[in-house]
Amino acid sequence: MSILEIKDLHATVETPEGTKEILKGVDLTIKGGETHAIMGPNGSGKSTLAYSIAGHPKYEITGGSVMLDGEDVLEMSVDERARAGLFLAMQYPVEVPGVTVSNFLRTAKTAVSGQAPALRTWVKDVKSAMADLKMDEAFADRNVNEGFSGGEKKRHEILQMELLKPSIAILDETDSGLDVDALRIVSEGVNRAKANTDLGVMLITHYTRILNYIKPDFVHVFVDGRVAEQGGPELAERLEAEGYERFLAGAE
Ligand code: ADP
Ligand code: MG
Ligand code: MG
């Protein structure tokens, strides 16, 4: 079973006004099989947390640690992080001109597992994962992210996750811009991955809606660059009813 341990993580970003500290001491531990919802107001630093774990060059880690199964994630290259079992849904948000979904997935699988997947089983796996996500077969021949709708982008992310079989997945606003049908299909994909493997999930979301489909074991309220409160699923229900005001009042 995998374990991702984030301890007192601090990160800054360069803005036109100067260096700004966004993460102000994040403590969070995610074990295989667990689903953690990270909920918080806009601008609280949720995406910065995801990008910092992903190794995005824009964010400088100024303190604390991120360990995966005892290995120092912050010392790893972005590729090494993926090979170690981390999946970050926002890792490839850009268009990749001239690279089809099919080639992209095979290249990613090869990079993550260290060897090219056997063609026969791979083609079958891709087809069945796409069918599960109600994706048209023609989608495999399209260029990555080129003209993808919001829903197609999210399905493509979950398709990657299902095929790459990570140990810890970080999903940032996977629910944004999805209609109810797409939300259900994408959530079922996450739940399948949870059922088939010992996946640990960090589910970052502003709204409680997706938590009706993906049940969290733990809920963390993220305010002003750190975890302000944590609890079980009942905490999400309270946030739904009360909003974030109570926490914002306490933030500086
Ligand atoms: P959230 O995902 O919770 O909405 P973000 O992590 O996106 O929050 O942003 C947190 C804060 O950091 C915001 O004030 C945002 O403007 C700032 N920020 C994040 N990334 C950058 C960046 N690349 N350049 C400048 N400011 C940034
Ligand atoms: Mg601190
Ligand atoms: Mg965000």
Automatic annotation (TrEMBL):
One family name in Pfam for this protein: ABC_tran
Domain of life: Bacteria
InterPro entries in the record: AAA+_ATPase, ABC_transporter-like_ATP-bd, FeS-cluster_ATPase_SufC, P-loop_NTPase
Keyword entries, A-Z: ATP-binding, Nucleotide-binding
GO molecular function: ATP binding; ATP hydrolysis activity
Transmembrane segments: none
Location of the ABC transporter domain: 4-249
SMART domains: AAA
Family: Belongs to the ABC transporter superfamily. Ycf16 family.
Protein name: Iron-sulfur cluster assembly ATPase protein SufC
Organism from which the protein derives: Brachybacterium nesterenkovii
